[in-house]
Amino acid sequence: MSKQNKIKSVQELEQPVVDLSIDYNTVDQEPKKERPRGREYPQSRSRMPEKQLFEFAEYKASDAERTGYSNYSYWKSVWQNFLRNKPAVIMSVVFILLFIFTFVSPLISKYTVESIRIDYDRMFTSPNSEFWFGTDNMGRDYWCQVWFATRTSILLAVLVAVGEIILGTVIGLLWGYVRKLDRFFTELYNFVNNVPTIIYMTLIALMVGKSFLIMALAMIFFNWLATARNVRNLVLMYRDREYNLASRCLGTSVGSILARNILPYLISVIILRLALAIPGTIAYETTLTYLGLMDVSRPSLGILLRNARSFFLDYPYLLVFPAGIVSIITITFYLVGNAFSDACDPRNHV
Fold first, then answer.
1. Cβ neighbours of residue 3 under 8 Å, at least 6 residues apart?
2. Residue 203 belongs to a domain
3. Helix/strand/coil for 26
4. What single-letter DSSP state applies at residue 70?
């Protein structure tokens, strides 16, 4: 090899080595520009900054309770189910008309309770064109007495029934749900229930008075026990169910749990007890009247039935008219109460 060729080879070895490898990850890529934080990129959520993707979620108990909310209306479903029961609807209309007629009857009657007088010449007159229901043992018009007595007995029965149901339901809900109150109400129930109610009513009538208001309040005060006991036993069945435990974990108040989670399942039982309490109150009022524990200055169905027992065999109309009205009220509330009780049961709602 010539000297010139050797020099050329040495120069080539001394040249720096050039890296001819290709980085395919950088081919056709432009240098990225830093995007400002906080800017929205609706076209691609994957490219949104973290501050736009995540934010703090506040807890609200009302919103948590409305999870899974629908357009379902409880009372609308109750009304629709009740209207499907035609006999109950007819009997409810009959009772409403009967109650309205107790206020209309004085307008079409020849006599009123305030204006009738004792006339022994007309005693035991059979029903005729002048005396539509005849006269009683003192010659007084029986028509105006029967309808006035019906209004008095219905108002008394509804007042007592509604009062004892409301008081019994409220106490029963607290009795069954709040564990600390269980012993107190249990002892109170045992104390009051072990003494016959007629003894309490007799003491109140002799010591306080026999007026309808006093006796109505006395009946409410002693008749709520059975309702409260029944409601308490039902509350114990629903108190520790999963949805109530979830409501307590979410911080829902006791009142809301009782009103929204438990009470709807008890309405059917409450309505049935209310429907049966109204004719039961009329029967109880008859018993008190028979024992002389009610004010007899104002006619009531119980007073008319008591007075008619001595003349039934000779003058049956004195017993037929008030007994017929009591029977209508009893049958009406039995049918309507059962139908409304079934309609109020959430398990019958679709």
1. none
2. yes
3. coil
4. -
Could you tell me if residue 29 is left (phi over 0), alpha (psi between -120 and 50 degrees) or otherwise beta? beta
CA nearest neighbour of 156 among 281, 291, 274, 322: 281
Q: Has residue 191 been placed in a domain?
A: yes
Three-class SS of residue 84?
A: coil
Tell me, what CATH number does 266's domain have? Answer: 1.10.3720.10
Of 22, 28, 24, 48, the C-alpha closest to 37 is 48
* H/E stretch holding 260: none
Structural domains in the chain (count) = 1
The predicted-structure confidence for 278-327, as pLDDT tens digits, reads as follows 888 888 888 888 787 887 777 888 888 888 888 888 888 888 998 899 88
- Do the domain assignments include residue 94? no
pTM for this model (two decimals): 0.69
For residue 193, the number of C-alpha atoms closer than 13 Å in the C-beta half-sphere is: 13
Task: Tell me the chain's radius of gyration from C-alpha atoms.
Answer: 41
Domain that holds residue 319: 145-348
Interatomic CA distance for residues 281 and 222, integer angstroms? 12
Q: Is residue 71 part of a domain?
A: no
